[in-house]
């Protein structure tokens, strides 16, 4: 299966996917495109180091959402990707890409949706909110993407204990390492194997 990975920052989730295509559970998956919302994203270095084609499609380079949305669709269609994976991608996708790739876009969110999600809840913020609320577990969620932040059907979740001496940074690191970098490749595997069914906005794995 060919996938396009959308990034905005460090690209550690992209790296987890790359590592699994080399000697893990995704050896029959090809990353045909890395699309970044920012030319500063270190994820672009990771793509270059692994000879993966990349492109920067930044909203601020376009004079309308429609033209930006068209550019995103064009880049993905040209790449031949069958699945779009948002991996640390911070922009809300336009309506055209969402409808053109309906139920073929997944996202990794660093909390157990429906907790600590939605507009503005990205990066360190979900972990700060989790500690402020005093939750005893937190984790990550892979979900299908629709036109609203973090609202599509949930495919996989994985939790870790919140430790008494956790800081937002230590919690973020543990969730990335023990949750995000595991369930995102697992989700791609399930989709590549055709094992995911969505009925009434609920995911079932057969
Ligand atoms: C991670 O916390 C991820 O959950 C969130 O963006 C952050 C950076 O991800 N979506 P990455 O290192 O760029 O993959």
Tell me what you see in this structure:
This protein is α/β, with parallel strands linked by helices and 206 residues long. Helix content is 36%, strand content 24%. The protein has one domain: Rossmann fold. Helix 2 (43-49) links the parallel strand 2 and strand 3. Helix 5 (125-133) crosses helix 6. The chain starts with a strand and ends with a strand. It binds 5-O-phosphono-beta-D-ribofuranosylamine. The site of 5-O-phosphono-beta-D-ribofuranosylamine has 16 residues, from helix 1 and helix 6.
- Class from helix and strand fractions: alpha/beta
CATH topology: Rossmann fold
Question: What is the CATH level 1 assignment?
Answer: Alpha Beta
Strand elements, count? 9
Enumerate the strands of the largest sheet in spatial order, edge to edge or round the barrel: 3-2-1-4-5-6-7
List the total number of helices: 6
Total discrete domains: 1
What is the CATH architecture term?
3-Layer(aba) Sandwich
Which kinds of small molecule does this entry bind, naming each only once? Answer: 5-O-phosphono-beta-D-ribofuranosylamine
Task: Categorize the overall geometry.
Answer: globular
Features of this protein?
206 residues, alpha/beta, Rossmann fold, seven-stranded mixed sheet, two-stranded antiparallel sheet, 9 strands, binds 5-O-phosphono-beta-D-ribofuranosylamine
């Amino acid at each position: 299966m060919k996938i396009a990975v959308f990034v905005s920052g460090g690209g550690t989730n992209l790296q987890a996917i790359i590592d699994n295509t080399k000697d893990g559970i995704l050896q029959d998956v090809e990353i045909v495109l890395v699309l970044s919302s920012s030319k500063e994203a270190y994820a672009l270095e990771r793509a270059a180091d692994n000879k993966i084609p990349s492109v920067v499609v930044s909203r601020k380079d376009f004079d309308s959402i429609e033209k930006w949305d068209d550019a995103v669709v064009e880049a993905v269609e040209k790449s031949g990707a069958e699945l779009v994976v948002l991996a640390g991608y911070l922009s809300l996708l336009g309506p055209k890409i969402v409808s053109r790739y309906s139920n073929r876009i997944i996202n990794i969110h660093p909390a157990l949706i429906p907790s600590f999600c939605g507009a503005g809840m990205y990066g360190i913020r979900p972990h700060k909110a989790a500690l402020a609320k005093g939750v005893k577990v937190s984790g990550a969620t892979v979900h299908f993407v629709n036109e609203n932040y973090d609202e599509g059907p949930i495919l996989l979740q994985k939790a870790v204990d919140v430790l008494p001496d956790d800081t937002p940074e230590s919690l973020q690191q543990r969730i990335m390492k023990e949750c995000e970098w595991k369930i995102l490749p697992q989700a791609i595997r399930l989709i590549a194997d055709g094992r995911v069914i969505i009925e009434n906005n609920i995911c079932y794995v057969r």
